[in-house]
Amino acid sequence: MPATVTPATVLVLHRFTVKPGHLGAWEPLFEQRRALWDAQGWHTHRVFVETDAEPKVTWLYSGAAGTSTPVEWAELEQQTRPHVFGNALVRMVNVEFLTEAVPGEAGPLGAELDRIAIMRRYSIVGDWDDFLGIWRRIVPLRERHGFHCLFAVADREKDMFTWAFDFAGQWEDFGSGQREYYRDPERVALRGVFDHMADYSIHPAHCLV
After folding, report:
1. Which of 78, 87, 144, 209 has the most CB atoms lying inside 10 A of its own CB?
2. Is 185 or 53 the better-scoring residue by pLDDT?
């Protein structure tokens, strides 16, 4: 089970898309960028790459606001640019839940991992506190059904909630794998969570970190 952590200072949600067919060239460049960033006092908590369509990356890191950018960053940015789309989104977010990977849960692309991640993003309407009150009851219920929460962050300014949990199976098995969870009377009682979701997306992902 992933280890729960408490991030220091600010948590950043950084999302962007790698061009199809460019993952092999992008990954080593990203690892260099991440190492540079971490050397400046930032700490990478999690990195996920969605695997069912264009590879969307979710990078979560924390550190002291105002940390300087390494000089080498510009060169790596230039080398990386041909491999990614110009759709990067960088947001300061509030943390609801955060873990760090344990052995077997994360690794380079292509590595055989024990579980896959399920990435979920909700466009929130209505009262945030009401939504979070329901969601906080959903998390332990999912845990009892074998889905471990990996992280959850709220961007209230943009009304966007992003979270992920793991699944012991393949994406093709995910629908059938959560039937018992949705049939659980406790989960049925929490259907009001959909009152707060104007839209949502669900994608399988590989955990890099």
Report:
1. 209
2. 185
Is the pTM for the entire model greater than 0.70? yes
> Is there a contact between 33 and 194 (Cβ–Cβ < 8 Å)?
no
The dihedrals phi and psi of 59, each to the nearest 5 degrees, come to: -120, 120
Bridge partners (DSSP) listed for residue 49: 57, 206
- For 146-201, the pLDDT digits (tens) are 999 999 999 999 999 999 999 999 999 999 999 999 999 999 999 999 999 999 99
CA angle 66, 71, 77 (to 5 degrees): 95
Residue type, 48: F
d(CA 204, CA 120): 9
Closest by alpha carbon to 60, among 35, 85, 93? 93
Q: What's the CA gap between 21 and 207, in Å, rounded?
A: 19
Q: Which residues contact 147 (CB under 8 A, 6 or more apart)?
A: 118, 165, 166, 167, 178, 181
Say if residue 65's pLDDT is above 60: no
> If you average pLDDT over every residue of the chain, what do you get?
92
Phi-psi region of 110 (alpha: psi -120 to 50; beta: other; left: phi over 0): left
End-to-end CA distance of the chain: 14
